Amino acid sequence: MAPSSRSPSPRTKRLRRAQGEKKETGRSREREDDGRGREKRNSRERDGDIGRDWDRERKRDWEVGDKRRRSGREDTEERGRAGRDDERYSRGRHERSTSPPDKSRRSSRRSPERAIASRQDEGSNARGGGEEPNVEEDSVARMRAVEEALAAKKKEEPSFELSGKLAEETNRYRGITLLFNEPPEARKPSERWRLYVFKDGEPLNEPLCLHRQSCYLFGRERRIADIPTDHPSCSKQHAVIQYREMEKEKPDGMMGKQVKPYIMDLGSTNKTYINESPIEPQRYYELFEKDTIKFGNSSREYVLLHENSAE
């Protein structure tokens, strides 16, 4: 009888299992090394393709630039030849002024402008016949498209200007919001202007001096008014006299900057009057010597004069 087969011992099983795991680890490492080698080869091939494309593009740009330089030299030479031909032709005409003009010779010569135009037509025909497109023009067009896209995506810049209630709070004086801001051209006057106050044709008190500051506010609100107007028909902030430096014609006819008085109604209820005529609100009106100003329904009249006014 044949001897019975014995099962391997536990030690033999462990050795076989360890050998199998070692072989599987070696095969997985070989597969990883093969994958890395393929990636390196592919990357080198891609780098080589990019370098070859770059070399071809540089060569094409150089050929286009060389063609342009040659065409520019040819145009310059053609222009010079045409100019010399015209000069010789004009000299010959002066020498042969007694002989009739030679129409055949004159028609055979071309002016520089015609020569350049003909060469441009030939170049355009040659380009239309299959010459490769201009690389520089394509790149410029692409750059313009990118710039337009960036400009379209550009966000609106933030504005830090004052508006609404914040602007009102910065234009307050003694707890009251002012209805008027001085303009950039505001200046103190050099002439000593005065307001003479009359009521029913009789002068009242001393004249009001208007040369110590650049603007004067008229109204019933005494906390902010430079010249109070206490009549009930007058508004709290009724009108303002503002000195402005403006371009004016001088007595000698020349233009120059002068500081002159202007008046503005601040949207009063009962209007402001110059020489019995009402003025529109929120608009400057220039004041002249001996103008008469009235506010609302008040009977007081303010006559504008200066130190050099004739009595």
How would you portray this structure in words?
This is FHA domain-containing protein. By secondary structure, the chain is of the alpha+beta class. The chain has a domain at 186-306: Tumour Suppressor Smad4 (Sandwich), CATH 2.60.200.20. Helix 1 (10-95) packs antiparallel against helix 3 (112-128). The strands form 3 sheets. Strands 3, 4, 5, 10, 11, 13 and 14 form a 7-stranded antiparallel β-sheet that branches. It has a 5-stranded mixed β-sheet with strand order 7-6-8-9-12, with no helix packed on it. Helices cover 43% and strands 20% of the residues.
Concise synopsis of the structure shown:
This protein is 43% helix and 20% strand. It is of the alpha+beta class and 311 residues long. Helix 1 (10-95) runs antiparallel to helix 3 (112-128).
Main traits of this protein?
311 residues; five-stranded mixed β-sheet
CATH T-level fold name of the domain at 186-306: Tumour Suppressor Smad4
| Total number of strands | 14
Q: What is the strand content? A: 15-25%
Mean pLDDT across the residues is: 76
CATH class of the domain at 186-306: Mainly Beta
Radius of gyration from CA coordinates = 48 Å
H/E topology pattern = HHHHHEEEEEEEEEEEEEE
The profile of the biggest β sheet is: 7 strands, antiparallel
Helix/strand/pairing category: alpha+beta
The shape is elongated
Region (Disordered): 1-143
Biased composition (Basic and acidic residues): 18-113
Domain FHA: 216-279
Biased composition (Low complexity): 1-10
